Amino acid sequence: MDDILRKRALENDNEALMELTKTLIKEEPLDAKNTALDMLQAAWTGDPAAAYQVGMNLLTSQESPFHRDKDLGILWLRRADKDNNEDAKKALPGAGQVDMGSYKDPIAEMNALIGLTNVKKAVMDQADRVAYMRLREKQGLPVSDAAVHMVFTGNPGTGKTSVARLFGRILRRIGYLKSGHLVEVSVPQIIGRWVGETPQKVVSCVNEALDGVLFIDEAYGLMGHTTHTGNSYGAEAVTTLLKLMEDNRDRLVVIVAGYPAKMAEFLESNPGLKSRFTEILHFGDYSPQEMADIYLKLAKEGQYTLNPAAQARLAQIMAEAPRLYLQNFPNGRLVRNLFEDTIKYAASRVMKLQKPGKSDLTTFTETDLDQAFRELNQHQ
Fold this sequence. Notes:
By secondary structure, the protein is of the alpha/beta class. The chain has 18 helices and seven strands. Strand 2, helix 10 (197-209) and strand 3 (212-217) form a beta-alpha-beta unit.
């Protein structure tokens, strides 16, 4: 039902937008809830200033009577802008764009991912468990801890961020998370430069991720940060994060990611990490066939085709590529870089033609692929 309402809201159905926004009003404190209801009612009756306020409140969960929902926030700002609200007009460029992908079926998208068979099953098992416990709770039955924090391990480009984003949307769909958005951070965004700054930065990242998923890439980097006196900024960050995970256990999912050996060391660095991150999913390298399939999927989405010689060369390239890397094989990133470079060389070739036709503009040749692969070899 939520996805149907979101589609309607995106199509300028104001009743759907209103109905969805009502579900995002926080229950506590009561005076803030009443303020939110009054603000929403004023926005609904055509007050552009109130619509602007609703939009800005939805864009952040900090000190807001609404749970965070970026997409709905943007829709309210657009409504205010349509009514010539100057504040909304100024705020819209920095608010970003509505994530059109968030209105598609996340489970179908998960199933459509190439490869990752074991990962997809494990993620859906987690989602089923959460949905199962929610049904038990509605029937007044006892439920076990539904925390779904996870560790993703594997080389770059194996789909970790994509799966995390889809997992958040799935959890939103089943009602576990209000928003399901993904906030991706790296260690430098968490670690402060002076004593006392690190906890503040962790709190800021968590607040941004509330009602969604906080994704920390290469989280083991926290272990290497110490002050000149030997105090650990990293340990301080982990301690703060663990407390916030506990305080917001029903509003936050945390996923930490990185290389397998280093992630194992990271989990051993604090007993609290091992107790909260009990689900570890390994993302293996793609096979040559899977990488070729990813390339062909990118080509199809961009309305490109490969002639027979190019298709044969693609298979050869994907078989050769893993042998060029002794470690940290880039997987999907290599495929995307190869695809983008193929476009570059195809463009160079086609623009030398007198009158390129539609077939010229949509077909990759063996030479295009060869040149693109040669460039990748030079850069690696």
